[in-house]
Structure formats: structure tokens, C-alpha cells
Amino acid sequence: MTLPQNNQEYGTKEYWNSRYSDETPDDTFDWFKSYADLADDIRTLIPDKSARILMLGCGNSKFSEDMWDDGYKNIVNVDYSAVVIERMQARNSTTKPEMQWHEMDVRSLAFPDSVFDVAIDKGTMDALMTSSSDVWNPSEQVINDCVAEVSEVLRVLRATGSFIYITFGQTHFRKRYLTGEHAPNTRLEIKTLGEAFHYFMYVLRKDS
């Protein structure tokens, strides 16, 4: 795994293309928690195995593959690294041929309105925040990028859809991006995960 020289590189397409190019097609990496760690929560939040699910910034995580193996067969994966999308599509073309893979920026999704039941972000929004070193006073770019992602997610979610965001970011750093004028008619639920080191699951639900 190629580590960045500084955290700001996590927010660049160049870093991710370089990193994935240096890895083998069999290499995988899951931020924070694996699907096995979160399966009970995901099954509760998404009881309908036929729900259309958007995986934001999928990378080479096994999360969507493991969800597929657990019965979720309608998953669309997006990432702005063309390298990883090509590799993940090739890796799953035989065993999971219906799973979709698209090169796409989460801040500008190329989907029509209201076409997904659930969207999942596990660390992708966190990468958008790395261009600012001050979490208490994020830059205008960070705010705009995160608001753009949430706005796009809400646009492509159906009337009763849910956005599941998994992160290490505490509520006083993350809640600002999930509430406000760009997220009307929604309600936010927050669950703390882990013991010694806490992670958080934010569930932003659209109200029909």
C-alpha cells in the first residue's frame, strides 16, 4: 500500500490512481469496519435485500462484495479512480456479473433523480475533508465539497431513502455537513460503534 506524504493527498484522484496502480487486483482494503463488523446494523437498516444500493467511493473494499454474498444483489458502485473501477469490475465480472461499477465523482453523480433506496459512504466524505488541516474551522472548499456530496446523494435517493455514512468523525465535526438548508425534510440518527476506539454511523433519512 502506498501511503501519502501528507493527508491532503487523500483528497486527490492522482493519489488514488497511483495507489491502486501499485497494488495487485487481489489487494483489498476496508476503512474503519468490515461488512462482518456492521452486518447486523446493515440488515436492520436495509431489511429489503432487493433495495437498490449506491456505494459511494467504493475503492477496492470488499464491503459491497460481502453485501452481495449476504443477499443484496442490486448494488451500484462508484469511485472517481478509473484504475480501481476497472479492476473491481474485472474481479467481479464472473462471480457477480450484475453488480455495477462506474467511474464517477460523488460530488456530481451522473444518475437521474430518485433512483436509489440507500446510499452508503464509508470514509469517502472523510477524504474530501483532508484538504483542510483545521477540523474546527474547515476551508470553504471542504464545506462546499461535503455539501455537494450530501446534496447529490439526497437528489438520487427516493422519497423515503436513507444515506448511511460511516466515519471516525465525531458529531461536532460531521453534523454540519448532514443538516441544514441543503438537507431539507430529513432526519438524522447517530449510532456510536466500537469500544476502545469509536466510530460513528450517521443515518440521514428522507421524509416523504
Descriptive account of the structure:
This protein has helices at residues 13-22, 35-45, 63-69, 82-92, 124-128, 140-156, 171-178; strands at residues 53-56, 75-79, 100-103, 116-122, 157-167, 186-193, 199-206. The model has no long low-confidence stretch (mean pLDDT 88). A 7-stranded mixed sheet has the order 3-2-1-4-5-7-6. It starts with 12 loop residues before the first helix and ends with a strand. Helices cover 33% and strands 23% of the residues. The protein contains 7 helices and 7 strands; from the N terminus they run ααβαβαββααβαββ. The chain has a single domain (7-206), classed as Rossmann fold (3-Layer(aba) Sandwich). With 208 residues, the protein is α/β, with parallel strands linked by helices.
Short description:
By secondary structure, this protein is α/β, with parallel strands linked by helices. The protein is built from seven helices and seven strands; from the N terminus they run ααβαβαββααβαββ.
Tell me the series of helices and strands, N- to C-terminal: HHEHEHEEHHEHEE
Beta-strand segment tally: 7
The CATH homologous superfamily is termed: Vaccinia Virus protein VP39
The low-confidence parts are none
User: Per DSSP, what share of the residues sits in E-state strands of 2 or more residues?
Assistant: 15-25%
Q: Helicity level, as a percent range?
A: 25-40%
Number of domains: 1
State the CATH architecture: 3-Layer(aba) Sandwich
Strand count, sense and barrel status of the largest sheet are: 7 strands, mixed
Could you report the average pLDDT, rounded to the nearest whole number?
A: 88
Any idea what the radius of gyration is?
16 Å
CATH class category: Alpha Beta
End-to-end separation in angstroms reads 43 Å
Order the strands across the largest sheet as they lie in space.
3-2-1-4-5-7-6
What name does the CATH topology carry?
A: Rossmann fold
Structural class: alpha/beta
The number of helical runs is 7
Pfam families: Methyltransf_25
Domain Methyltransferase: 53-125
Keywords: Methyltransferase, Transferase
Family: Belongs to the methyltransferase superfamily.
